[in-house]
Amino acid sequence: QVAGDLEEVEVAGFDRSWDLNVRAHFMAARLVMPSMKKAGRGVIVNTSSSSGVLYDREMIAYTTTKHAVIAMTRQMAGDYAKYGVRVNALCPGWVDTPFNEPFIDQMGGREAIEAYIRERVPLGRWASVDEIAESILFLVSDRSSYMTGQILVVDGGETVV
User: Fold this and answer.
1) How confident is the model at residue 1 (pLDDT cuts 50, 70, 90)?
2) Which residues contact residue 4 at a Cβ distance below 8 angstroms, ignoring those fewer than 6 apart?
3) Which entry of 37, 55, 62, 116 is annotated as an active-site residue?
4) Which residue of the set 55, 66, 82, 83 is catalytic?
5) Is the pTM of this model over 0.85?
6) 25: part of which helix (H) or strand (E)?
7) What pLDDT score was predicted for residue 140?
8) Active site residue 62
9) H-helix or E-strand containing 37?
10) By C-alpha distance, which of 89, 51, 83 is closest to 70?
11) 3-state SS, residue 46
12) Average pLDDT over residues 141-158
């Protein structure tokens, strides 16, 4: 299990969360960086979460790894800007995907989680997958050509309240 506070989360769950949320980004960037350096350009978008900039109750494994992705993004951006490689992170908030099924069950069903989101998120709703895709397209396009080491939070305003 990856949910839980310091005393509840299983160590194996913490390790799985680390492998998926941090190590996978590290390995992918490590794999493509030589080609990007040789080309003198490239863009990496790491996926963090609004949990990477917020406290997320009893989710120490997830939150810790998402904070780590932000730190790694900034470090890579600083190290590789001189090669023309930009590295940014996307921090989505609540997105309506099957990923949320455990949270929906934990909250007591879809109606309960939607009520929670309406209360907690200023825009009062989930993000659609298309809205998150648009943010990714911005980060990989030339429209963000002077951005590196930045964190783009797309969360309906959740982190501002």
Assistant:
1) low
2) 10, 13, 58, 59, 60, 61
3) 62
4) 66
5) yes
6) helix 24-39
7) 98
8) yes
9) helix 24-39
10) 89
11) strand
12) 97
